[in-house]
Structures are given as structure tokens and as C-alpha cells.
Automatic annotation (TrEMBL):
Name this protein carries in UniProt: Pectinesterase inhibitor domain-containing protein
Organism: Triticum aestivum (Wheat)
Presence of keyword DNA-binding: no
Keyword Signal: yes
Keywords for this protein: Signal
Signal peptide: 1-23
Amino acid sequence: MAMAKIILLLLVLVPIRIRMAAALIDCPDVPSLGAGAACQKACGTKLMYDLCIRMMREGDVDMSPSHTERATAYAILAAHSTAISFDNTTIAMSDQLSQNSSLSSKQRVAYEGCMDDYAPADSSIDTIEEETLPSCHFTFLAAEYTRVITNVEKCRDRLLSPTLVKSPLYPMVLADLNKAVVANMLGKLLGT
Ligand SMILES: *[C@@H]1O[C@H](CO)[C@@H](O)[C@H](O)[C@H]1NC(C)=O
Ligand SMILES: *[C@@H]1O[C@H](CO)[C@@H](O)[C@H](O)[C@H]1NC(C)=O
């Protein structure tokens, strides 16, 4: 319950956070561009492009082509959106484990494994959002995203059985993975 309130609060804070980030962070060598152009440049597929645009809209970014921001602002927004999504999934998993008595033992083992996978993924996405991007030193960004993505992939792979893919958590994990991939690709616009 308390956690749910925190999540709600975080969701409300997204637009405020991005504006603050944009105002506070001005990494001098990072290009400025429109949000649509950033998604276009970063994303190779329509699926990823559409998700990128959705993440921007949810973060209350001004989408008009004439409005530009440093690419850092988009990268931080995407990392933040990914972090919130991870938290939401982790809560859903932990709720299932503690409250759903009809979980099979296979499901239980998979969800517990996923909780272990999400811990390092969560810690790395927080580091990216709060330290790596705001510091304007992007040297370790790619390695940090690799840690995020490989750990969420580990969880996805645990759920890749005919019964587990039908679990309500599977689409949430896939959505997390896609968000992390978009955030990683936006991070590559910063030119490390
Ligand atoms: C959060 O999780 C719930 C299920 O617990 C899901 O229905 C909802 O779409 C999720 N929200 C986000 C923003 O991922
Ligand atoms: C409990 O787990 C079962 C098996 O995965 C699932 O079908 C059901 O929707 C879950 N119940 C709730 C309340 O989430």
C-alpha cells in the first residue's frame, strides 16, 4: 500500500523531474534536438520508435518539432520511465509471491529468480538516471545498460515456458525490456 503510493507519486513527478533535469543539466558536447528527431535517430524499428514517442509523451515532453532539448534530457527521461516500470513490475511480482496462493511451484521459482534478476537491473538503472547521465561523463553508460538489459533478459528467459509465458508478469517484463532498450539507444545519442 505504502509502496503503491510511492509509485503513484513517482508517476506524478515524471513531468516535473524532466523539466528540472533539462534545466539543471547542460552537458556542453551533447547535441540539442527535437524529441521526435531523437526517437527517429535512436530507434531502428517502428516498434521501438513508437515506444520512444510514448515514453516522451508520458514524460510530458513538448513534442513540437521546433522545440529542442539536449539529448541528455531525453536520455534521463527514458531512464526514469524505465526505472518506474521496473519498480511496478517488482511490486507486482512480490505481490504475487506473497498473496497469490494459487501460484504453481514453477511459477514461484521463476518469480523468485526474477526478483533476484531485477535487483541489479534496478540498481543500474538508478545509477544511470541519478549519476551517470547527470554527471555528463558517459564512459560507463553502455556497460551499465548492458547490466540492466542482460538481467531483465534473464528474467524473461525464466518465463519462456508454455505455461509461464501466459502469466500476467510476462508482458510486463517484455515491456520493461523494450523500455530499457529504447533508453539505451537514446543514451547512444550522447556520443560517448
Ligand atoms: C503497473 O502494474 C500493473 C499491474 O500490477 C499494470 O496493470 C500497469 O499497467 C502497470 N503500470 C505501468 C506504468 O507499467
Ligand atoms: C494467481 O496466479 C494464477 C496463476 O498464474 C493467475 O492465473 C491468477 O491471475 C493470479 N491471481 C491474481 C489475483 O493475480
